[in-house]
Amino acid sequence: MKSRKLKHTRRRATILTAAATSAVAGVALLPNWNAGASTAAEPQVDAKTKAAFQSLADAVFTDRTNALVDQPRHGGKKALAGRFSGKVELSSGIGRTEDAARKQLDDRRNRLASNGEKYSVGSTKVTLDRTEVKGRTAVVVVTENTTLTYAKVTGGEPGTTGFQAHHELTFRADKQGSWKVTKIREAGDGYLAVNQLAQPKTTTVAAKTTTTTPAAPRAAITKRPTAVPKKLTGGEYDYQAMAAYAEKYWTNYNPAYPNFNGAGAGGDCTNFVSQSLKAGGWKHVPGYVYDYTRWFGTADIQSHSFVGVNEWSWFAQNSKRTTSLANVYQMDVGDVLQVDFNKDGSKDHTMIVTSRRNGVPYLTYHSTNTLRRSVTSIISSYPNAAYYAYRT
Fold first, then answer.
1. Contact status, residue 143 vs residue 165, Cβ threshold 8 Å
2. What is the DSSP code (8-state) at residue 27?
3. Could you point out which of 27, 189, 342, 387 has its C-alpha 20 to 30 Å from the C-alpha of 80?
4. Contact at 8 Å (CB) between 105 and 118?
5. Tens-of-pLDDT digits for all 392 residues of the chain?
6. Kind of pairing, strands 179-186 and 88-90?
């Protein structure tokens, strides 16, 4: 049976991503136009043209990554993407937008540093997924894979954090056959990449319930709260197994479950967290898919509590499988964090803790696919959001 998809019960948060840095030789990858073609004729998009599209995209997102890395600083050095000229380049409008983006990421890097977190090295690679050409417009979809190495500020940080994001770039050709990027946007369901700039879009939706739904209290975001120790082994649940599952499938989705990323259903974040909890011992509670007191998920059918952000929270609270933590920094491996970006009472995103170092939880999640991002980094990007921390 075809996978059941959630409709009108989950929140969608789409965020413009930002990150990137990689040197490009623009001249060697210039488009190859047909000899003798009129300047007024529609340009040909051959393999060399596509390679130039990819290289410019790589330069754009590599520039964003560079802005996040402590050394070398972006400073006054001309951006990689700005070095492109001729047949493939940034439009003046996108050039100004990217300048502003890098300044915003410079500020984010400084906020992180003030909170004890730095990245020493960044690496970005962009691959070309597809190119669709209609007349003088080319729409190019790429995948960005970025890895950032944590600088040893306290000495206990994980080795790296990484994310995978999908972008759509629109190129327009002028009468002389020169292509310019006129638009960059996120493709699919994207949430909380470390280089995303704009505040996430949120959509208030109604969710079916059978009784009054239990509410989770907000968690504070101040550092160094009172410790709340957690026994990771020997109990009812295997929290290390939850973390191992999440870190195994953060980019390579488990084919035993449906993938809601890019499905227009709000993303795959809660579906992914539910899978991780199941891997660590959470048992199915069969029943009606719309009943938030039920919880189950297979390749063929999933309860809304398995895949929906708010529905998961209602099930987790009602079933007593979770308790609320007073502070996000009290979370440990296997605990869950949810975010309500605009504080309207409806949660938007779900993540799971896969590492805890020196009192800092590190989260792994889908949409955007992300490995071991610190809660400090998330709060630095979204300081005005409401946070909900669950001890599993």
1. yes
2. G
3. 189
4. no
5. 323 344 333 333 333 333 333 333 333 333 443 433 444 577 789 999 999 999 999 999 999 999 999 764 444 467 899 888 889 999 999 999 999 999 999 999 999 999 999 999 999 999 999 999 999 999 999 999 999 999 999 888 999 999 999 999 999 999 888 999 999 998 866 667 888 776 666 644 434 444 566 788 999 999 999 999 998 888 899 999 999 999 999 999 999 999 988 755 568 999 999 999 999 999 999 999 999 999 999 999 999 999 999 999 999 999 999 999 999 999 999 999 999 999 999 999 999 999 999 999 999 999 889 999 999 999 988 999 999 999 99
6. parallel
Q: What is the 3-state secondary structure (H, E, C) of 290-358?
A: CCCCCECECCCCECHHHHCHHHHHHHHHHCCCCEEECEHHHCCCCCEEEEECCCCCCCCEEEEEEEEEC
If you search the block for the tokens 């000495």, which residue do you land on? 155
Q: What is the rounded distance in angstroms from the CA atom of residue 289 to the CA atom of residue 28? A: 56
